[in-house]
Amino acid sequence: MKKGLSYLAVGVAAGVALMGVSEGVLDAAAASANDRLTFFAEIFNKVRDNYAEKPDDDKMIKAAIDGMLASLDPHSTYFDQKALQEFQTSMKGEEFGGLGLEVMMEDGLVKVVSPIDETPAARAGLMSGDLVTRIDDAPVKGLTLKEAVDKMRGPAKSSVKLTVERGSGKDVKEYTIVREIIHVQSVRSRVEGGDIGYIRVTQFNQEAYDGVRRALEHFRADPGSAKLKGYILDLRNNPGGLLNQAVEIANAFVDSGQIVSTRGRIADQEQRYSARPGVNLSQGKPLVVLINGGSASASEIVSGALQDLKRATVIGSRSFGKGSVQTILPLGENGALKLTTARYYTPSGHSIQARGIEPDLTVLENIPDDLKGKVSSLGEASLFGHLKNGAEEEKGSDAYVPPDRDKDTQLQAAIRLLHGTKIEALRSQYPSAATVTAK
Amino acid sequence: MNRKVGYLGLGIVMGAAATAAAPQALMYVSPAAYAAAADTYRQLNLFGDVFDKIRNDYVEKPDEAKLIEAAINGMLASLDPHSSYMDAKAFKDMQVQTKGEFGGLGIEVTQEDGLIKVVTPIDETPAAKAGILSGDIITSIDDQPTQGLTLDQAVEKMRGAINSPVKLKIVRGPKKEVKDFTVVRDLIHVQSVRSRVEDGDIGYIRITQFTEQTAEGLKEAMEKLHSQIPNDKFKGYILDLRNNPGGLLDQSIDVVNAFMDKGEIVSTRSRSPDETQRFDAKPGEDLSGGKPLVVLINGGSASASEIVSGALQDHKRATLIGTRSFGKGSVQTIMPLGQQGALRLTTARYYTPSGRSIQAKGIEPDIKVLEDVPDDLKGKDDMKGEASLKGHLANGVEDTAGSQAYVPPDEKDDKQLAAAIDLLNGEKPSEIEAKMAAASPKKDAKGDAPAAAGAPADAGAPKPN
Lengths: 439, 465
Fold this sequence. Notes:
Chain A is of the alpha+beta class. Helices cover 26% and strands 25% of the residues of chain A. Chain A has 2 domains: 97-183, PDZ domain (Pdz3 Domain), CATH 2.30.42; 187-429, 2-enoyl-CoA Hydratase, Chain A, domain 1. Chain A is globular. Chain B has 2 domains: 102-189, Pdz3 Domain, CATH 2.30.42; 193-332 and 347-457, 2-enoyl-CoA Hydratase, Chain A, domain 1, CATH 3.90.226. Chain B has helices spanning 34-57, 64-77, 88-96, 126-130, 151-158, 214-228, 249-257, 304-314, 415-424, 429-438; strands at 5-8, 84-86, 101-104, 107-112, 115-121, 137-141, 144-145, 165-172, 177-184, 186-189, 193-198, 202-207, 236-240, 247-248, 264-269, 277-280, 293-297, 319-322, 330-336, 342-351, 367-368, 382-383, 403-404. In chain B, strands 1, 2, 14, 15, 16, 19 and 20 form a 7-stranded antiparallel sheet that branches.
């Protein structure tokens, strides 16, 4: 039996701890696999013995492992001890000195998945989709994601210079940003329009469900249950995180029904997660979920479940399309493996892998001219080596959220729906044109 | 003694021969360090652990052979840009190439940061005729992205039946201009030596790469030139090694030997001191009759080309004209792996007769002459060189600036060639340098592409110390 931690995020998100130890029962009878390992060992030894310089054996093995994992899919990676600790730290929502960027690797460059609200990166104006080409003038090309993240982190108040390419025109921009302690505060809430409970989940770390629970409880007092018209759950640009947190958060809005099921190749990856009765904190009030091209993974589990169960109206643009589950498999003192072990399926039995979730009401943000064509997420379907999902794959969609809430068309549409405007009326008002800005 | 084939190419040299001779003389490390052995065991164990976890837990049944190959490629790529694994098919292809022909486009390519980059188009091939340039990045082949392909896979896709077309999407230069080419494959002859009489009394020889046939081809070319030019009129040779990415070590030694009778040509040093090898000129092999010699080099001259030009320069046998060479100072050995293809592994560095390593530095010409680059190619013709390749072997103070790798298609515009002819006709080097710099009509006009054209002698290329 394996008890790993299921992890669902795009890129390096932040988030959690390991439970359990792998006891990896291996099928030693597989002779051909042994032959392959022997072959690998032969080459490893040839290099060790004959290379022009004494090679760094640890580095070679790590490169071999990285190469092997990269050949599988974009989400399987190896964490050495240090990387694992950092990963655990971030999943716990702990603090570190940094910029407040969620990043991933694309074509050897570091790509901004999203700047975290109220961090130096967000204030400086970094955007989803920006490619970081240099950190403190040193090229990013050739660095691993972890190395790049390490360079961006550092003591609070120290500054770091980022050179960024933005959009298809590859506009080059430079930012000098002063690091701060980044609290990985994954849930923020406020009352919208006097009678709507707005909850934004930025990532699914270990604190996420607690944050949502507290927000829902808070709304009972402010604006008060009698006045409360409904909720907006904002999952835009949320790259994902922990599976169990996603399940708990969905459960906070429903009483019964399946939330998600996962299926892997082996039996113990086949799991159904259903809502437990008695933990629905939403008092049956209407719910709108906001998604966009930056909503991935755990965000898609939540929005997919609430959509399939007809518990929520999903507004925004098509989600990212990451329909796979990664498990953290410990490797003793050698760190851990983050391996894709399963696909997940929404309650209706659909895999959103490389397709994403289509909102019930597509509403596009008005993108300022200087950002046009630069704030789209290409989505899972355009990642090299992504798991296939039949012929009907879909690319990503816009991933722009206006900083000014009054200009946030998706948010305004959600408020209007909760204030009683019919969805048909809204639909005619927000022509859904192309989901991706045609470019 | 292990007899492995020393190979000095840049990237995959399409059509270069490399016979994988011989026994796998594996030098097993002495059992002295037991701790080291235990460490190896630990490392291999970790690898085995990961491999097994993938086999058991991955969401889909993985292709185990592919996993191992990706692991090997990842491991080798972490060493340096020239070590690689060839599976059985790639290895066989490489051997087939020793025949000297295949259906293809005629480009030499290398992989850099996962991208397929053109080292140089081979003369008179479909690629050269279509206008593909050194430094172009091939982003897709027949509409399939190259990102994620190994170099072998990309080469495989570009090769094919003669007369069949292939579509290439190319990104060019710092502005990343995207261009589409449809190129019809042709039979690519690996004719590595071409020669002609220049100016009535000069023997011009161009070596495009060092294949098994090169020394023989050179011999024929030199004999032919001697039959065309009467000995008393024969002013000298021009040996053109521009954009020659390298090839076989033994061939480069024979090429040098065809111009000089004695002295060290090159020495190679691997990790263990007893593996140091020195290659000397054999007496009686000099076919040049002591005639003056000019060697042309540029940023695309690498590896075996640098052995030849370095040896001839150190012995003052030749005057080097052109721009700084690429700077690949390492030797790869092809190690056959039974049914499993072969390993191309960097096993040594080489040193010119004066004891210098040109790794990541390149060879500076005696007379620096830049070509005039057409406006539309400005800034796109530079070869970045070994020092800018990710993971290259380090060599002290390096020269990371690019060096020009442009040769005008029309010989009349070829200033480096003209300079060589002038020198053989008796002009002084200082006069030639001054004249060539002055002849640059747009000299200094543009400050934005200093190494490309115009500015005298690699201005903008910071010289170490």
